[in-house]
Amino acid sequence: MKQQTGVGMVEILVALLVLAIGVLGYAGLQLSALKGSESAQTRAQATALARDALERILVNGASQPTYLDQSNWGGAQQFFGDAPPTDCYDSTCDSDEVATWDIEELEWQAGNLLPAGRIQVQSCGGGITSCVVVAWRDQDIDDCVSNGQIAADEDTECVVMEVAR
C-alpha cells in the first residue's frame, strides 16, 4: 500500500489563501472607513466655515448688503499657503471695510482649511434669499445651487446655508 504524502501541505496552502483573502477584505474596509472619516471631517469643517460667515453677517449688520452682494465674493479657489489678508480690526476701519476684510478672510480660510475650498454668497430661492455656499475638491460652486434648488446628491461636495434677509 502506498501512503499519501503532501496532503497537509495543500491544506496549509488553502488555509493561507483564505486568510490572505480575509486580510485583504479587512484592509479594504479600513480604507473605506478612512475615506468616510475624511469626508465627514471635511463636511464638518465646511459647515463651521459657512456658520462663521453667517455669524459675521449678523454681527456686522450695517454692512449686510456688502456681504450679500455676490459680486463681492470671488468664488475662486484660494491656494494653500497664500498669505492671509491684512487685519482690519482696528479703529481705522469702517463697517464696509470690515465686511470686505471678512470676505477676504473667509475665502482665505476656505482655501487653507478645505481641499480646493471655495466660499461665496449667492442668490437662492428665487432671489428673495441668499445662501452661503462652501464647495471643495472638484465641485463647481455654481452647481451647488441652480435655479433656486440646492443640490442634494449623495456625492455633492458642498454645504449650503440660507441667510434670512
Percentage of β-strand residues:
5-15%
Helix content: 40-55%
Question: Can you give the mean pLDDT?
Answer: 84
Q: Helix/strand/pairing class, anyone? A: alpha+beta
> Within the largest sheet, what's the order of strands?
1-2-5
Radius of gyration: 25 Å
The beta-strand count equals 5
What's the multimeric state?
single chain
Order of helices and strands: HHHEEEEE
- State the low-pLDDT regions, or none: none
Strand count, sense and barrel status of the largest sheet are: 3 strands, antiparallel
Distance between the termini: 95 Å
Specify the overall morphology. elongated
Please, how many helices?
3
InterPro entries: Pilus_4_PilV (IPR013362), Tt1218-like_dom (IPR054402)
Keywords: Membrane, Transmembrane, Transmembrane helix
Pfam family, one: Tt1218-like
Domain Type IV pilin Tt1218-like: 29-103
SSE layout:
Blueprint: H1 7-59, H2 64-68, H3 95-113, E1 118-124, E2 129-135, E3 145-146, E4 149-150, E5 158-163
Antiparallel strand pairs: 1-2, 2-5, 3-4
Helix pairs in contact: 1-3
For this entry, give a set of tags.
single chain; 165 residues; alpha+beta; two-stranded antiparallel sheet; 3 helices; 5 strands; 47% helix
Task: Please characterize this protein's 3D structure.
The protein has 165 residues and is of the alpha+beta class. The chain has 3 helices and 5 strands; from the N terminus they run H-H-H-E-E-E-E-E. The strands form 2 sheets. Strands 1-2-5 form a 3-stranded antiparallel sheet. Strands 3-4 form a two-stranded antiparallel ribbon. A hairpin with a 4-residue loop joins strand 1 (118-124) and strand 2. Helix 1 packs antiparallel against helix 3. The chain is elongated.
